Every structure is written in structure tokens, then in C-alpha cells.
Amino acid sequence: MTNIPETGRTPRVQIRLVVIQILVLSLLGTLGGRLWYLQIREGAEYAKKASGNHVQQVVQPAVRGSILDARGVPLADNETRLVVSASRTDLLKQKDDGKAVLTKLAGVLGMDPEDVMLKVRLCDAKTPQPCWNGSPYQPIPITDEATPKQALQIRERSEDFPGITAEPEAVRRYPAPGKSNTAQVLGYLSPVTDDEIQAAQDTDSPYLRSDQVGRSGLEREYDKELRGKAGVTRYEVDNLGRVIGQAEADPAQPGANLVTSIDARVQRIAEYELNEAMKTARQTWDRVTGEKYKADSGAVVVMEAKTGRIVAMASNPTYDPNAWVGGISAKDYAKLTGKGSNYPLLNRAIQGQSAPGSTFKVISTAAAVEAGYPFDGRYPCTSSYSVGGQVFKNFESENFGPISLGRALEVSCDTVFYGLAHKEWQRDGGIRPKKDPNDYFFKAAHQFGLGKETGIDLPNEVTGRVPDRQWKQRYWQANKDAWCKQGKKDGTYVEKIAYENCLEGNRMRAGDEINYSIGQGDTLVTPIQMATVYAAISNGGTLYDPTIGKAVISADGKTVTEIKPKSHGKLPITAKTRDQMDEALAGVATRGTAAWRFAQVGWPQDKIPMHAKTGTAEVYGKQTTSWFATYTKDYAIVMTISQGGTGSGASGPAVRNIYDALYGVTDNGSIDRSKALLPSPQKGLPKVKTDGTIASPKVAKDPAKEARAYQEGATAPDEQQPGATTASPAANRDTRRRRKTPRRGSRRKLT
Predict the structure, then answer these.
(1) Among 11, 306, 535, 542, which residue carries the largest CB count within 10 Å?
(2) Beta-carbon neighbour count of residue 446 at 10 Å?
(3) What phi-psi label fits residue 481: left (phi over 0), alpha (psi between -120 and 50 degrees) or beta?
(4) What is the pLDDT of residue 43?
């Protein structure tokens, strides 16, 4: 007998079979559910994707829009060049990762093989420039300056150059019309990165791998408008990749043109005068340090007073933005970013911060009036002011006796403001302030727009600094440990300061407010902030957002979007105080610290009223910084030169020369309107024709030389068509015209 059932299955085997049946049925159910999901619920979507498997896309890059000056002269446009590119994907398929091919290519192009190889490596956190920061699947440009002979050699011997192409392409160009460089304002382009492609894929302006994007300046700020939309043609292909038909095509849409308020002629003169002023300063002896002034950097802003529009903005040192076109070389990148470069990529008009010196006194004057001190009151202008054993001297220890606030602005009397600031410090409770101190001097600075961005349409603007009580507390908390470690009660000057800051660096001391009242101490401003302030005084009190973009015009000229001026506030002064300050600042140009640059050397004050304020800022461990802030009814011009000397001494002549060019003024004070570049701000917009061409006027080869020739009575240089590539303004080494300084019996105050 046997215990095996008739079925031949034991209970254990039967259980196993049941489990297997359940698993099989579960898998079949899952598979069926998945098939239902793919074929029925999501069938249409996957059918659409499947149809794309036999479709290949060909991308046609959009032509980037031009950046124009106010009259339509191209500051940035495009030109067709022969571009040699390398496919990194194809190079990596070779045994040596393409090194032999790149070496051979370098020989044809006359380039260093190492420079070529550096251009095709990918950028990451450990790889310094130059490198490729775009998509690794996009052709990497090696050069955009290939000759037809070189391109033909590469194309005819394609078997020797696998992965290498030589094609005509539209390439960005910065033509520098009339030698107006405009580098920091325009910015530059570089390839889009994978991260940027991912971030923008669901927006209304997605990137393609072939796109170049703006990295600084207007190229970045208006990138979306300038870039346009690339065209895509889709071809149906068989399983062997052969084209069997065209599916559809989206034509490329060229980018719009950006019209700016920049005038290329005024821009060139501003750049030239700033550069010449710095060169002259470097030949001037500094009696304090016993060496010549370094004049290591500077900036100038020319602004329309009634709108905030920027007519010219120059920063020095500068660079040629064409260096970035087609990929920057290792040598050029080191020049722009190395320790000895002095960082020319910085736009010092919006990113350069320094103490404003006496140009700040218009704010202190407004604060004093708000605090209850009459503008026409009498305040002692002594040679020095003492507080607790510390002596604060007036500039060159001058003593003017009791004077009004207006006269204090004219002669730039420090001790008047020392006394007013000290009294307010005492009224607020001194070293142990009352619960809600008035802080008129600090509040006025914030109300004038300092300590925050002006809102200019350029990226990376800095805020400057108003060293009020809140800032001092934050700064002390961040630096207390370092000060306490470094400080010594009887050490060096720096060690003593650190010791004092360790103990009470969060307290507003009398000396802090006294120094602050004349734009010294921890106060920091930018040239664009001071230009905005002085333009507001000119126009009656409106603080405008500075703007460079004036209008966006479509490639066919049919759509025009104007960029209207915007205000971010009003000056905290009455109309009466504004008029009194206006009269005092005119006095600076006629009988005060700037008179020897204007009234006494032929400025037509009766026809073009000039207003000015000089400033000489002292910085520990450095030479003085020159500031010169001015305005007429039309324009505000502010110039600063780091380690350049006094305000009227270093910056004064350059600012005067810019005004001469704007209004057509000669040394003897006569005005020739036919020689005036821009006697009133540009009103209209340039005309963009339906075929994309732009009606723009001719530009002199060098407006700065033309202005010099007019002043000297020589024949003006020939003119050139706009857009011709010219040398950098830094290359100009012409001798600047010297304005004769009148002899004076009394000593001149150079603040």
C-alpha cells in the first residue's frame, strides 16, 4: 500500500502550486493593468512620443538683436564670420580623446595646441577658465577668426579632422563707434549651461543648446528681448537615419533691438576724459604720502537730470568685450581676472564704493534744516573742532568765521558740519542714546536713496552703506571676536582702534557722527547713487531710477515698447530749501571751491547755470579719493578717481571738458551750438526699417579728438560710417588740452 494520493501530489506540493498560480495571476493582472495604462489612458501621449522617434530636429539659431545708442548707432551687433568648432562627443570616440586632431587643428589655425585643448574641456568647480561652460553636446567654438583658406583646408581634409567643422555663422560684435568702448555697460555673452536649460525649460523663454546668453551688462539685463527664438525644422527619417520627408518647421524669430539712452559720442568723450584725468593724476605729487598719486581706478556718469536716463557711463580700467566672442583665451582671461588686473570687469559706476567726502554735505545740510537749524543761520567755521581731547581739523585749517549753511557748502567748511552733527549726537543722548533718537543725519541719507540700490537696469548693482546705529550693531556682532583678539590698549594705531571697537564698537560715538557728517568714516556710496542725488536736486526733488534702456523695437520695426522713466522717491526737503541749496551749489561754481574750474576760466554762467560740489575723501592706508558732482538744468555729471587727489584738482578739468563738448563751450566762454554734441537730451527714437536696417547717423572717427580740434581751432577729423571696429580708448595717447588756470592772490582750496 502507499500513502500517495491518486493525484500524485502531496499536500506540500499542492500548496506550492497554489502559490505559483496566485503569483502568475498577479503578474498577468499587473501586466494587463500596465498595458491598459499605456495603451488606453496614456495612449495618445505615448503615441505622440513614439512618432518622434523617427523625427530629427535641425536648429536654426536666431539672430540676436542689436544694442543701439540713442541716435541708432550700433554699440553691439552681429557679423558673419568663419567659425571653427569641435564636437566633444566625436573627439571622445577617438583613442587619444582627440588630442592628435586638436594638435593638427592648432597648426592649421596658427594657435597654441594647449590653448585649443583648454577651450574644449568642460568647466566645473575644480577647472579654471578658460573652459567650456556650455552643453557638452553642443559644438564648441575654437575660433571665429578663421580665414577662408584655413576653413577650406579643414573642409577638404575632413577625414583628417573628424569632429571639426568650419562654417559661416553670425557672431556678436562690439564695434566701438567713434572709439566708444562702453564695455561694462554692454557686457558680453557665453554659451548656455545645462543647468540654465533645465531651469528655463518650462518658462515662456526656454533655452536651446546652441544659445548664447548675456553674462553681464545690458546683454544680461535684456537677454530675453535680445535673444529672439531659434527656428526648428523637423525631418522624418527611416531606421537608417535617411530623410524621407519634412514633418514641420518653426521659423526663427530674430531678437528685438534695444535702443539705449547712451550717446556714443558723449560716451567716448567721458571715457577719454576719465582716462586722461587719471593719467594726469599719476604725474601729480602727493605731499601727504610723498609719492605720485596712484589713480588706480575711476568712474564717471552723465545723466539726464529730468529723467534719470544715462547718457554716458565709463569705468576705468576697462577692457575689450570682443575678447569674449568665440570663447576667451587663457591669456585674455588672466588679464581680466588675475591679481594684477585691477579687475576691469567691474563696472565701478555701479559697483565701486568709497566714502563720498564733501559731496555728501548736501545730505548733511538737508538733515540740519530738518533738525531745526535755519539755512541762513550763522555757524562758526573755525580751523578745528575739538571733542574730548580729539581734534578734527578743517581742510587746510581755514577759518571763515560765522557763516550760513549755503556758504559752508560753497567753501566746503568741515567744522560747521562737525558742530551740527555733534550737537545732534548730544541731543540724541550721546554714547548712551535715548530710546528713540532722532538720528536726523542718518535718516536723511536713507531718504536721499543711499544704502540701497538705485534700481538701474544693470545687474549686480551694490548698495553702498549708511553706518547708522543698526548697521553698527550688526557689524560689531560680526567682527567683535576678531577685534578683541587683535586689539591692544597701547599698541599701534590699528591695534588701538581694534581695542576700542572690541569694547564699544556697537555704540555711536561722537567721532563717528562727526566724521559721517562730511562723508567720511564708514560711509560708502557709488557714483550712480551720487548722480541720482544731484540730478534730483536739479529737477526739483524727484529721485529717478537710472535707466539705460530707452525702448525695445522689434526686428521689423513694427513694434515699439518704450521704457518710461520711473521714480523711487522724493528728496526730504521743501521747495524753499531746494532753491537755497541750488543757489549755494551755483556759488560753488562761481565763487567757491570749483570756481577755478568754471567761472574763472570762461564758463558762461549767465547762459548755462552750473552747480557743483567738490569732494576729497580720506581713506586710511590709501591716498585721497577725488569726487566732483555737478549739474545743470539738463544733466548731472559725477566723476570719482580712487587715489587721485582732490575733487576739483583731479576730476574737475575732465568734468569741465565733458560739459564743453555737450554745450559747445570754448575756453573763453563763447558757445557754438553747431559744435555742441547734445545741448539738450535726445528726445526721439531711431527708425528701424521693415527689412531690419537701421537709419543711423555718421560718427566721427574720434569725437574726443574732434572736441579738442574745435577748442584749438583746428580742422575736425574726417567722419566714418557707424559700426567700424576701432581700437580701445585706452590705446589713445594724445596729449590732453590744458586749460589755463587763472592766477589768484589768495590760496585756492582744492576740495
Answers:
(1) 535
(2) 16
(3) alpha
(4) 67
Task: Please state, in angstroms and as integers, the Cα–Cα distance from residue 431 to each residue in 221, 507, 573, following that order.
Answer: 45, 6, 29
Q: What is the pLDDT of residue 592?
A: 94
SS3 243: strand
| Distance from C-alpha of 237 to C-alpha of 129, rounded to nearest angstrom | 40
Closest CA to 353 of 297, 279, 275, 304: 297
- Of 523, 563, 542, residue with least CA distance to 636: 542
Please give the radius of gyration of the chain, using alpha carbons only, rounded to the nearest integer: 33
The cell for 694 is 537701421
How many whole angstroms separate alpha carbon 574 and alpha carbon 578? 6
pLDDT for residue 247: 67
Reported as half-sphere exposure (CB side, CA atoms, 13 A), residue 126 has a value of: 0
Number of C-beta neighbours around residue 9 at 10 A? 13
CA-nearest of 679, 747, 737, 742 to 272 is 737
Look at residue 409 in the predicted model and tell me its pLDDT. 97
Residues β-bridged to residue 243: 237
pLDDT at 12: 77
Query: What parts of the chain have a pLDDT lower than 50?
Result: 1, 714-749
- How far apart (Å, rounded) are the C-alpha atoms in residues 418 and 393? 10
619 vs 520: CA distance, rounded Å: 8
- What pLDDT is attached to residue 145? 85
Per DSSP, the residues of 653-667 read HHHHHHHHHHHTB-T
**CA-CA-CA-CA torsion for 451, 454, 455, 456, nearest 10 degrees?**
-130
Rounded CA gap, 522 and 501, in Å?
Answer: 13
Instruction: Give the global pTM.
Output: 0.82
Give Cβ neighbours of residue 399 (< 8 Å, ≥ 6 apart).
381, 382, 383
